[in-house]
């Protein structure tokens, strides 16, 4: 389960840093780069950047409820659902409102992850290695911040979103084995 936890940490911060390499593409007049067919406005730029934080404010509510009633592991695995929805909607977006939708769903997952990941690690790690396990979150959050800057400038808007939205989490569901409901 640790690899899934670290993968969720990385995905959360990829969602946060996603805008930096994508903005230049969305401001482009080139329709082969910009799926909207026109440059975004400054107002749309602001919404794309801020909707993820609005989603992140709401995200802890449903995911903490799921974690409390169905278990932390189930709550963490459920975070994959809005991530997949967010990335795939933005991969195929040809309308600014679809980007807005994707950013809100990415924020929901990010907010849920920032709530459940530290909680899960604190509960499953032993006292002698809790600090080390907690530190893995910081490492994978940093990787999540770095990856969009590393690959974003070289890929279209479609490709990174399509790669990130692949149901990589489905494997996690199959490999998670025993499900602990409380």
Q: Any overview of this molecule?
A:
The chain is 76% helix and 0% strand. It is mainly α and 182 residues long. The protein has a single domain, classed as MFS general substrate transporter like domains (Growth Hormone, Chain: A), CATH 1.20.1250. Helix 6 (80-91) runs antiparallel to helix 7.
Topology of this protein?
Layout: H1 2-17, H2 19-26, H3 42-58, H4 60-70, H5 72-78, H6 80-91, H7 96-124, H8 130-151, H9 158-165, H10 168-175
Helix pairs in contact: 1-7, 1-8, 3-7, 4-5, 4-7, 5-7, 6-7, 6-9, 7-8
List keywords for this structure.
single chain; 182 residues; mainly alpha; transmembrane
Question: Nutshell version of this structure?
Answer:
This protein has 182 residues and is mainly α. It is built from ten helices and no strands.
Radius of gyration: 17 Å
**What is the CA-CA span between the terminal residues?**
16 Å
Q: Largest beta sheet, briefly?
A: none
The name of the CATH topology is Growth Hormone, Chain: A
The coarse silhouette is elongated
Strand content: under 5%
Relative helix content: over 70%
Low-confidence stretches: 168-182
Category by helix and strand content: mainly alpha
